[in-house]
Write a sequence for this structure.
């Protein structure tokens, strides 16, 4: 089994030692995407029409905020395009980690219906080992593995179990999509029941769930709690996100938090009047600093935590 070397990130342009990542990371983003179910082209980041704007934003953030890494969680059935990711990464000079897996049930691809858990896990392992399609570009994370509701549907549970088995076989970690923040505990239970350690799991979209008790529960189990839709104020205000984040920090779980913006349609790009990938650095983190976060804490939340999640590294010391 061709696992990444310890402390190594598998990026779209090759393996990268985590020690060479000096600046912050965005832990859950999309650079290329197609979730257009309405035919209006809104839920799209098109390789031809939008890649230049995406590249420009990332390059600007590298220069302004030191952005060093993007975890790109567009997976099978979501319009993934590995070659475009590699081009964006090279042109922006920002490392990008690509993903494999399946999103939540409305976006499942046909093979899920007839395959069992081991067959689906085998599909993921082959992609991790040999690359996406014929590109030779290998995923560095499993995600965003999706479910909706408090309990995953049977097909979603099958995909979660397959992702856990593939992660265990390959040494990668799993990032989930918990629709509107719901169902995180059930996701974690399924993943860990397959033998995947909780510290190799990130439960997604928890900033959309106004329930500090659930956040504490997930963190106490050892999972990462992703506050990854920062700036999406149509779903949740950033003031509520900040309150929830401060509550989790006050509970002593700073080493179990991931932050990002989840840019998932072209209308979110800065050039189209949206908040952009930089909203976390330009707008949200300054408020966190005003609430008492020092530079070491910001580095933990935006750099060390995502690196430890991706590499499966141990506890923060």
């Amino acid at each position: 089994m061709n696992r990444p070397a310890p402390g190594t990130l598998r990026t779209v342009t090759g393996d990268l030692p985590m020690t060479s990542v000096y600046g912050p990371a965005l832990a859950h983003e999309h650079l290329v995407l197609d979730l257009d179910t309405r035919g209006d082209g809104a839920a799209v980041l098109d390789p031809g029409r939008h890649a230049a704007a995406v590249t420009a934003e990332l390059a600007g953030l590298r220069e302004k905020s030191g952005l060093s890494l993007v975890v790109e969680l567009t997976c099978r059935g979501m319009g993934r395009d590995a070659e475009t990711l590699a081009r964006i990464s090279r042109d922006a000079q920002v490392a990008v980690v690509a993903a494999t897996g399946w999103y939540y049930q409305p976006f499942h691809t046909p093979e899920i219906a007839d395959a069992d858990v081991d067959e689906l896990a085998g599909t993921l392992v082959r992609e991790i080992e040999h690359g996406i399609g014929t590109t030779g570009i290998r995923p560095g994370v499993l995600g965003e593995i999706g479910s909706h509701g408090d309990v995953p549907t049977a097909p979603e549970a099958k995909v979660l179990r397959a992702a856990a088995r593939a992660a265990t076989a390959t040494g990668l970690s799993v990032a989930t999509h918990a629709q509107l923040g719901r169902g995180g505990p059930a996701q974690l239970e399924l993943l860990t029941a397959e033998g995947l350690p909780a510290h190799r799991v990130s439960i997604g979209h928890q900033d959309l769930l106004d329930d500090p008790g659930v956040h504490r529960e997930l963190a106490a189990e050892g999972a990462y709690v992703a506050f990854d839709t920062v700036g999406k104020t149509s779903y949740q205000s950033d003031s509520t996100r900040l309150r929830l984040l401060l509550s989790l920090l006050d509970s002593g779980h700073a080493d179990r938090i991931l932050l990002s913006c989840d840019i998932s349609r072209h209308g979110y790009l800065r050039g189209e009047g949206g908040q952009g990938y930089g909203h976390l650095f330009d707008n949200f983190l300054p408020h966190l600093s005003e609430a008492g976060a020092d530079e070491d804490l910001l580095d933990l939340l935006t750099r060390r935590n995502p690196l430890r999640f991706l590499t499966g590294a141990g506890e923060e010391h």
In short: The radius of gyration is 18 Å. Residues 154-170 form the longest helix (17 residues).
